[in-house]
Design a protein that fits this description.
Strand order of the largest sheet: 1-3-2
Distance between the termini: 60 Å
Structural class: mainly alpha
Helix content: 55-70%
Largest sheet: 3 strands, mixed
CATH architecture of the largest domain: Orthogonal Bundle
Mean pLDDT: 91
Length: 231
């Protein structure tokens, strides 16, 4: 019995070592991105693969822009719509998570999410779109890594540059030009609020730009933007 048990332990230790190495690989990327901009994200690569299955010549619309070159209107709109406590929390909005859980429990299905901007960035940068228990656990670990080594402005800057805003449209600059024909720096308050309202379902709103739900949310975001605290 000793030999099988010994083999089992070696397998367990080997798997644990691989897991640790993977976490170190993730952490190394995050440390590198403190100073250097990510050229892409896992989610962007997944979307491009899906698009190229239908059209091999498909490409993404994406152009990195530095934080000062992104309109404060858009920054305020996203804070209001996605994570009002972004400046204050350490990666997780526990009150928001509790409210989302209670709302989903009441409806009997997922109708609300409690993910912070840091959690959304963790998913976009590294994780697949498949919902698994492992994926959620990894999201927590990556979020803690981001919050530990990056300041809030850097987290937000990367988020603004990799977030999806339509079919193949990623980042603030590409979104501003795709929808309004202006740069990210030139976005008005109303334009910024519209973009923020699109975030939960950007590919749908890309083709349904006058959807009532999005227009109502745009007005709500506009009303709250003056109170937003941005990094």
């Amino acid at each position: 019995m000793k030999a099988p048990r010994s083999l089992f332990m070696r397998i367990v230790i080997g798997l644990f070592a691989l897991l640790v190495l993977y976490q170190l690989w993730l952490f190394a990327h995050i440390v590198w991105w403190i100073k250097f901009d990510p050229a892409s994200s896992s989610f962007m690569e997944d979307r491009l693969e899906v698009m190229q299955d239908k059209n091999p010549k498909a490409t993404l619309k994406h152009q990195w822009v530095d934080y000062p070159k992104i309109s404060k209107n858009l920054k305020r709109a996203l804070i209001v719509s996605e994570d009002a406590k972004f400046i204050d929390h350490e990666g997780f909005d526990w009150e928001g998570i509790q409210k989302a859980y209670e709302k989903n429990l009441k409806k009997g299905k997922i109708v609300a999410g409690g993910s912070t901007i840091s959690q959304q960035l963790a998913k976009n940068l590294f994780l697949s779109t498949k919902r698994t228990p492992w994926r959620k656990g990894e999201e927590v670990i990556i979020t803690l890594m981001l919050e530990t080594v990056m300041d809030k402005q850097r987290i937000f800057e990367i988020y603004l540059n990799v977030i999806e805003w339509g079919n193949g449209v990623f980042g603030a600059e590409a979104a501003a030009r795709h929808y309004f024909g202006v740069s990210a720096a030139q976005l008005s308050a109303e334009q910024a609020a519209r973009l923020a309202a699109m975030v939960p379902n950007p590919r749908y709103y890309d083709t349904h730009r006058e959807a009532r739900g999005m227009l109502n949310k745009t007005l709500l975001i506009l009303d709250r933007m003056p109170d937003a605290e941005i990094p």
